[in-house]
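Q: Make up one entry.
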Amino acid sequence: VSRPITFLEYVVIADYKATEKKDVSLNKGRTVSVVEKHDNGWWFVQFEEKQGWAPASFLEPKTKYDKGKDDPEALPQSEKFEAISTYKKTLEDEVGFAVGAVVEVMHKMMDGWWVIS
């Protein structure tokens, strides 16, 4: 007999709409359990009766939000930035914008990419 299997809990930091059958759509603020992490940036998650693949860049460890918070589902404040150059999207999961556009940054990735809304 082994110990019960426990999964790490993560909080969704931005809405994500599934694009393939094996993916799962996520809503900002939802807590999910991460079952499996792949190096390609896609993690297998489960919540309620749903499960599927989701982009890791939309998830943050739940413990980050539990410390000193009255509401464990609360997300950190976002930041707003004004674009100083135009960016033309090249992939479907990217967002294009013009010079002067104000974007709300939900999450800054270590590889230099940001999740914006």
